[in-house]
Input
Amino acid sequence: MRSLSTTLLASSLALALAACGGQPDTVDDAATPPVAPAATTPSTDSMPADAAPAPAAGSAVAVLTATEGNAVTGELRFAAVDGGVAITGQVNGLSPGSEHGFHVHEHGDCSAPDATSAGGHFNPAGTAHGRVGSDEHHVGDTDNIVADDTGVATVDTRLAGATLGDGAPTDVLGRGVIVHADADDYATQPTGNAGARLACGVISQPQ
Ligand code: CU
Ligand code: ZN
Output
C-alpha cells in the first residue's frame, strides 16, 4: 500500500527510482536517521574574551526626548577625555536664537511628564552651582546651548571633572541630561534659574 507521502515523493523521486529500480515503499519506510546532537559548546566562562565585543570603554550616547507639551529632541555622544567628559551632538526644535541651560542631572529617569524625575544637577562633590571655568560648579554643569536660526543647537562642550563608565562617584553613565526652557544664569542656587525642562535623555552605552 502506498502512503500519501510516498505518492508525493514518487513524483520527485521518479527519475531516481526509475534509474535504480527501487520500490517507493522502501523509501517511505526508511526511517530518517537521528541527527547527531551538536557538540556541547564549552561554557563561555572558560573561553577567552573574544566572543561578544564589549561597547567601547569610555563612550556613551543619549537620545533626548521632548517633555510633555514640548517638541525638543536631540542626540548626544559622550566620550571620556582628559579631565572630564566631552559632549557633542545636536538639539533640535528650539526657538531660533534661543539660549538654554543644559546640564547632566542626577538620575537617568525621564519618566515624569516634566522630567523632574531626573532630579537636580549632578553634584557628587557637594559644590555650589556655577559656570564651568570661572566659578565653583556642579560636575553636571555646562555652558548654555544656543540655537541657530533654524532652531538647532550644536553641542560641543565638556563636563569638567566627570568620568564615564568607571563606577566612580563622578561617573555620569546612567544619569540624565536636561535641556531647559531658559538660559542658566550661572548664579542662582542650585538650579541656575533655567526654568522648565524641555527635553530629557539618559546617558547610556550603545547596545
Ligand atoms: Cu538642568
Ligand atoms: Zn548646576
